[in-house]
Amino acid sequence: MNSNNDPGRSFFRHENIFWMVTIAVAIAIAQLIVRRVL
Predict the structure, then answer these.
(1) How far apart are CA 14 and CA 22, in angstroms?
(2) pTM
(3) Helix (H) or strand (E) holding 37
(4) What angle do CA 18, 23, 24 make, to 5 degrees?
(5) CA distances in angstroms from 5 to 8, 9, 13, 23, 25, listed in the order given
(6) Tens of pLDDT along 5-27?
(7) Distance CA 15, CA 5 (A)
(8) How far is CA 27 from the centre of its chain?
(9) DSSP letter (8 states) at residue 34
């Protein structure tokens, strides 16, 4: 049971990091657009 829970937790953590990177890139693009508009 413990062995089965470990991989799932690791995958969830990896996906969370991917989401954080995606959000960071989205914010960077948004800042560039705002700077160009202003």
Answers:
(1) 13
(2) 0.55
(3) helix 2-37
(4) 95
(5) 5, 6, 12, 27, 31
(6) 565 566 566 678 889 999 999 99
(7) 16
(8) 12
(9) H
